[in-house]
Amino acid sequence: MWKAVTSKAVQAPLRCRARAIDKVLLRQPHRTWRLATVEAVRPMASKPEKSSVRTMQTVSPMPNLVENNTRDPVPKPKAEAAYAAMDGNEAAAYIAYALSDISFIYPISPATSMGDHMDKWSAESKKNIFNSVVDVNMMQSEAGAAGSLHGAVAGGCLASTFTASQGLLLMVPNMYLLAGELMPCVFHVSARTVSKHALSIFNDHSDVMHCKSTGFAMLASSSVQEVMDMALVSHVASLKSRIPFLHFFDGYRTSAEVSKIQPIPHADIAKIFPYEAQQKHLKEFALNPNEPKIRGTGQRPDIFFQSTVAANKYYLACPGIVQETMDEVYALTGRKYDLFDYHGSPTADRVAVILGSASKTLEETVDFMNRNGSNVGVVGVHLYRPFSDEHLLNAIPKTARKIAVLDRTREDGALAQPLFMDVNVAFSNANRQALITGATYGLASKEFTPEMAVAVFDNLNAENPKMQYVIGIEDDVTHTSLPYGEPITTVPPGTKQCMFWGLGSDGTVGANKEAIKTIGLNTNLKTQGHFVFDSHKADGITVSHVRFGPEEIKSEYIIQSDADYVSCHHPSYVEKFHQMLDPLSEGGTFVLNSPWTTMEQMEENLPAIFKQKLAKKKAKFYNISANKLAQSLGLGKRINMIMQTAFYELSGVLEVDEAIALLKKSIEKAYGHKGPKVVESNKSAVDAARQSLKRIDYPASWAQATEGGKRGEHTKATEFVENIMNPVLALEGDKLPVSAFEPGGHMPIGTTQYEKRGIAPQIPVWKPDACTQCNYCAIVCPHAVVRPFLLDKQETKNIPPGFEARRAKGGSEVSGYHYSIQISPMDCTGCEVCVESCPDDALYMAPFDEVHEKYRPHWEYAVSLPEKGEIGDKFSVKGSQFQKPLMEFSGACAGCGETPYVKLATQLFGDRMVIANSSGCSSVWGGTATTIPFTTNKDGRGPAWGRSLFEDTAEYGFGMKLATKKRRRDLRNKMLVAMETCKISDELRGLFQKWIQNMDKNDQVEILAPMMEALLLKEMENQPDLVKVYNDRNLFRTQSHWLIGGDGWAYDIGYGGVDHVLSKGENINILVLDTEMYSNTGGQVSKATQLSTVTKFAASGKRQNKKDLGMNAMLYENVYVASVAMGASYNQCVQAFKEAESFDGTSLIIAYSPCIDWGIEMKNMMHEQKEAVDSGYWPLYRYDPRRAEKGAIPFQLDSKKIKGDFEKYLHGQNRFDQLFRKDKSLAEGLHGSFEHNTLHRHEKFQKMAMDEVEYLEYLKALHGEELSTEKSIVLYGSETGNAEALAGVFASELLRRGIRAKCLAMDDFEVDDLPKHSTVYCVVATCGQGELPGNCRDFWEQLSDKDLPSDYLENTRFAVFGLGDTSYVFYNEAAKKFNKRLEELGGKRILNLGLGDDKDEEKYETAWNEWCPNLWNELGTPPPPQELLPPTYKVNIDTTGEISAPTEALTPAGSKIIPLTKNVLLTPPDYDRDIRHYEFDLKGSGMTYSIGECLGIYPHNNPEEVNQFLGDCGINPEHTVTLEDTSGRKEPLPPVISAGRLFGEVLDIFGRPSRRFYETMSIAASDPSEKKELEYILSKDGADKMKELVKETVTYADLMKKYPSAKMPLDYMVDHVPRIKPRLYSIASASEMHGDMLHLCIVKDDWNTPSGKYREGTCTRYLQHLSRGDKIDRVAGKINAAGINIPDNHRPPFVMVGLGTGLAPFRAFIEEREVSRQRGEDVGEMALFFGARYKRTDYTYGDELEEYHSNGKGVLSVLSTAFSRDQAHKIYVQNRISEHPEVIYDYLVKKKGYFYLCGPAGNVPPQVRKAVVEAFVKCGGHTPEEADKMVTDMQIEGRYNIEAW
């Protein structure tokens, strides 16, 4: 218990603070030291009388400054002062500007706007009190700002900076230096939470409390007015004391609160400015070679300590100096401050001590309590460091014996919080007895309200008061919270309280700020405005809390009750936020913006709970269709003026006529600079709004309403969504207890799919008959709400009513499918980017309320369909969009330019991505709790996402990459060890070897990973080295590491880390979302900002060129670099992502990302990108070091030609155009330089893309020399990238054949240059119905010029190949046009037009492969020779019968021959699955088994098929084959065996052939057609054919039959056909129950190939036909060690999870324990969670299980089944586990039981693990990390076992 004591043991180390000494050291000009009295530098001012009542006058926040550098020795208090409305940040900046020579700024919320003001005033040449313009400098980071400030002060300047949170922490090293060197300066801090388990931009004092040991004086403000006054105190006192000051105030609560305050005129500021101290304490210490000195030396232990303590006298003097300065401010303003301000009863018995804005809430509460009989007070702390115990104790009444100290910070692990500790020490030092309690409150802007304050005081009077506690939350875990009561009203009488529920970007907040200023500055009312936002970048919830009243407003908390006016600005809110009515007072006014204009519509759409609240509160209810009205008035989404009119009309704050007059006057002020037309239109909006406002006279029966509301229930969401996310989204997160959260900050992904905001006023609607199915609408959609779907025939039959689908257009891969574009109505933001980007006019916008109910079930049906990402090429524009976006429904701004790139990356690589995300916009829309847009695919795999700090993203991601690399390297070593030490199958050994060879090849390890996992499970029992490999199975697959962030990170604060990563060459991908400004903090200048841009922190236009990050990266020469702009070239963007990710090294993609802060319409976002590229503003290029390795130029300029108007592009964006409006001459100069630089850069890039020959040609042309006459060019017109890719391949093939040819998009080539080329090859696609691709239209226009002569191309030969689709009327029209026109101009056709057809089996490649050889025939090229490698077996066939082959059963190594005694079908005959029960007799075999082990069975091939194959090969099955291994294999093939048995029992001739086998066949084939076909299959062009063969499960035998001329010799056959491997099956019996009998439960593996051919799995077919009837067959088998661990006794409980035939081993477990139980042994509990599709068909052994369960009385304690398809919604085993958390925790943790899972691999094991972890968390109170580690420990101990296949 904390209270002051007198024990010497306690007091000994707590020496009392010495009284302030009155002498300080001053540095004199003659460089000698002398003692001087404090009075010499801080003249005392007499305490003035309180000022008289002030009259209100409007004043500019930055008035004209005076040149007066003198002040009265004894200032007089002012009698009058003017008023202004401003927020806390502006108040701080106002003083900082007045008292700074120089300022260093860097954006960070919520401090950013202080820098904005400084930069703006500097750009406007405003003067400070010294009649000079402040030099304001944007730095690259907060560390840079602090370092520069350090230098500026060392140079003798008055300096200031502004920051918060992590930004302040970056300044800490320099803060120590500044304080240690006694350098006066001021840091103004909008106090903000320091990121811990999560980032929070909201307020507490954790950042400033971190600085308490730096030596800075720390001065706190608690209101906007105090910010103004304390800022002045800080600047003045810092100079007087020589101590640097940290002036702080609560972020957002104070920094963004708009209040009516009294600014201090600069003339008055000048009166108290300490000019003498400035000279002596600052300028005379400046580093100057004329008076040289040195600072910052290095000191040894002998003197450092003493030097540190030498400064103590300044800290002892500081409190007195601060108080003196406060008195001077009092003399100027009449506002009295003390170091510790006391408010309350002079004889209070209970006192609270607090810092910051909550002190005002306490003052209000103290007044309320004292009026009601209490005797309490509050001390508000101003000067926190140096902490003056004397001043604190003097402030607290002597009568106070109970003290509550409240801290707005939390030091985890500390004995107590900082202020609490300081107060305790102060009381202890003074031997003053008191009960002192400590409270933590308000972290991350958690509200501190009057009822909480009452609870704090009441606790002091409790019989057993809580000594240290938290207030404002419910801590139901460690029980440290203090309960508090219901809301109470403490605001002064006459205060009007108004709440506005707005939609982000609708103008509500801005309008309310304007209303505060308008009303506050034109009336005698006090004003206050506080604004609450959710975490969406735009279109989120905003709640404005606005108060007006005749008395000072101290209510530093949101409106909780007695609201006079509440307005709802979006109709969807009535469903989601019915609590908005809770604060409304009885009879208060409620205004709704909705399209519901009739009572019937209100009845239908208002939820019952909403109606009840309205009626019970007897609210005056008004409605206005603001969105419809705004649209009709041309205001778009901006409904602010309409809703403000409603406020002025109905709120009662002012008389209506007066209010409307003021509103119209404010319109003139706000919009006057935009011209009279805009002013009048807004005034018209006011008049129209008044007429449209309608009173809703609802019936009294609404108080008992039970119906209403149309949003309905969504699909059942996850527990996290239901219990955490939904309350948070409903703005009721404050009600969640501590136990609801997982410590550590981890959040599940994929939660935005449940949000369903429904905020778009309009959504796109698809017109299927106009659609060409290009998928552009999907790739551009920022929120992944527009998606293409492919439906098979059955899916098409099941579509809901109205669902539109059309036959899929394209090649054979979409044959049989229907295509549909679907939009998610509830997730769409209405940005219109898809509509504007559609080349076919196949989308239009429709009102949300008219269409969303129709289209919502369509979307839900579409997303329920199986994913079909395997169809088509995912690295094409179209194919990429059939991949599920693993980033969806983010909270980004409507039309965001960043999200399409990240969404695309997740579509291409999302299941492997590890993302280190920088702070910024992308971290807000990508990682805001609880709405996470990153999600998983059907396999449960998706992006793993993490954020560290703004400045260290590159290092953070680099560390993750190195960790992965190290762990995978270790895994490789573990495999090598396991192959040496463990007994493993050949199959597993082979997989290990393949993995080691291909561990970094994703396509290879994707195949190997599940195979290795399955075999490891079967083979790792009792083999620890294999277990080690298995435990690292999540590293089998490659990971794709990405660093993602904006330009503020990559170009500025994080550039050092980015550059370091670029230099290291690791396989890391960097994606820079380049908005060319700090978008997240409001649009500040960065090094990516272009020359002449007007933006925040560059208010007069940026004067420096943009840093070329791409060029910097290319200098390393081993970095892949791409510059992309999706809207300019979708294909180039997709290819850049593909190339970057596949590059084995560091890659950098710089993505042009339009931002709403540019001043553009975001619906045109993609068009803006195209215009940027066409004008040369933004280059498209790719720099690929791999090209250099092949002898090609690594740099490819994809935007080869500038085609647009540069100046026009700049004028289209406000960020450039506004400079013209400000200073046309300056703008013209800067824009001219900008255009010149752009042209120079383009020319440089053109040269970089040239090879030596091209560069020589360029130089010749430059000097007028004669050029080569034989020149070839490959031109393409490509929309989706297919034609471009084909043209590139063709150009490479030309080069390989000795023909040099450039490859260019047609629009990048001048028609004038065509005659200079002897040969022109054109590859051109056709879009839609005969349309030209976008990158050849300009070229066609030039080529179509009628003035071109008919002999224009008489010396030019040409060939044209087209890519089209015969399903279109104008098939290959574009190619036909070019072919015809080139001939019309005199060109000589080399061969006929080639027509590629997407409907062909191999799409356009079918025709290409016919056309291209004809071209080569014209040009002539022979193919290269090929040859076979020698075989590794010497094989002979004895046809004489001299050699006898063994007849006994073949027994593979380690196996035995055992009889199969029973073969029983378990499933109904009509079921499509054949599940069988097999019994094997092991008697006499020497084989024994235990539960958990597997039986490996060696199957035989079908004898009939074997004989047929051998007959086709001309081999007699009875002939003997001898085989001699020449390669030293460990287990060679049998040396002597019959041909029939070799191919029937040894070689997997009916297995899937390897590519090597195809190659061998192609070489061996003597038939030219067969050889050609085989070569084709092996070629790139034959990839689809190869896939088809694989899908058809073509076998080795099939291939040899298909291509008989190959006549593959037998020695090559045995070399290339692998041996049959055993198939392992879990044993389903216990030997204790069945003796020598061994049971298996196996489902038959069979399928139909795409062609309809029926296929069967080799082993299940083999077993199915054995031992039918009375016949007993024998098989080769072996017992495989258990892949799971079994305890030595039966006492530990078992938790078993079985899926389908995965039940098999658990049947054995149960049987064994049943036998033990019957013997009377102590048997532990058993819980079985069984999952399958249907109970009727799949519940194998169901009767047995039910009997073993016996309602919990049997050996099977818990039996929980999950038959996923027996009900409408699917239920899985993990769901059942979640229903029994207490069982899981009891069995596995309390009783140290064992966990087993047996079933399919994939998503099930991690989901089950997650359920187990959650059970541990829920029942054990563990953190998720602890729980997860517990599972890991169980694995290590062998108690957590998974067997998956």
From TrEMBL:
The keyword Phosphoprotein does not apply. It is an enzyme of class 1 (oxidoreductase). GO terms for biological process: electron transport chain; response to oxidative stress. Residues 1453-1688 form the FAD-binding FR-type domain. Residues 762-791, 819-848 form the 4Fe-4S ferredoxin-type domain. Keywords: 4Fe-4S, Electron transport, FAD, Flavoprotein, FMN, Iron, Iron-sulfur, Metal-binding, NADP, Oxidoreductase, Transport. It comes from the Eukaryota. Residues 1272-1416 form the Flavodoxin-like domain. SUPFAM superfamilies: 4Fe-4S ferredoxins, Ferredoxin reductase-like, C-terminal NADP-linked domain, Flavoproteins, Pyruvate-ferredoxin oxidoreductase, PFOR, domain III, Riboflavin synthase domain-like, Thiamin diphosphate-binding fold (THDP-binding), TK C-terminal domain-like. It catalyses: pyruvate + NADP(+) + CoA = acetyl-CoA + CO2 + NADPH. One of its GO terms (molecular function) is thiamine pyrophosphate binding. CDD domains: CyPoR_like, TPP_PYR_PFOR_IOR-alpha_like. InterPro entries: 4Fe4S_Fe-S-bd, 4Fe4S_Fe_S_CS, CysJ-like_FAD-binding, FAD-bd_FR_type, Flavdoxin-like, Flavodoxin/NO_synth, Flavoprot_Pyr_Nucl_cyt_Rdtase, Flavoprotein-like_sf. Its cofactor is FAD; FMN. Its EC number is 1.2.1.51. The keyword Transit peptide does not apply. It holds the Pfam family POR_N. PANTHER family: PYRUVATE-FLAVODOXIN OXIDOREDUCTASE-RELATED (PTHR32154:SF0). In the N-terminal section; belongs to the pyruvate:ferredoxin/flavodoxin oxidoreductase family. This is pyruvate dehydrogenase (NADP(+)). It comes from Lingula anatina (Brachiopod).
